[in-house]
Design goal:
It comes from Aeromonas simiae. This is DUF1484 family protein. This protein has one domain. Helices cover about 80% and strands about 0% of the residues. It is built from two helices and no strands. The radius of gyration is 19 Å and the shape is elongated. The two termini are about 15 Å apart.
């Protein structure tokens, strides 16, 4: 990359955060699918707690994905300007 790039974006960090987001979503999907029948019959299961927990996790993952998408878009714009492509 040239010295003309206006903002440093740590691609290793972006990749790690995207991988973490994907892993979190896959884990959530696995947990929900594997425990679906058990949670229906478990008297200790609290649907509201699960809903808030899942909502919070999805909010964090969505925020992470959005932030990294913005970084990738910004980097793409910078590379296009540096490469003379529009």
């Amino acid at each position: 990359m040239t010295s003309h790039l206006t903002h440093h974006i740590d691609l290793n960090r972006v990749q790690l955060e995207l991988d973490t987001s994907v892993s979190a979503l896959q884990t959530l999907s696995y947990l929900l699918a594997s425990n679906a029948e058990q949670t229906k019959t478990d008297p200790r299961f609290d649907p509201a707690t699960l809903s808030y927990g899942v909502s919070g996790l999805l909010e964090l993952v969505a925020g992470n994905l959005h932030e990294n998408s913005c970084h990738i878009s910004e980097l793409n714009d910078q590379l296009n300007r540096e490469g003379g492509m529009s």
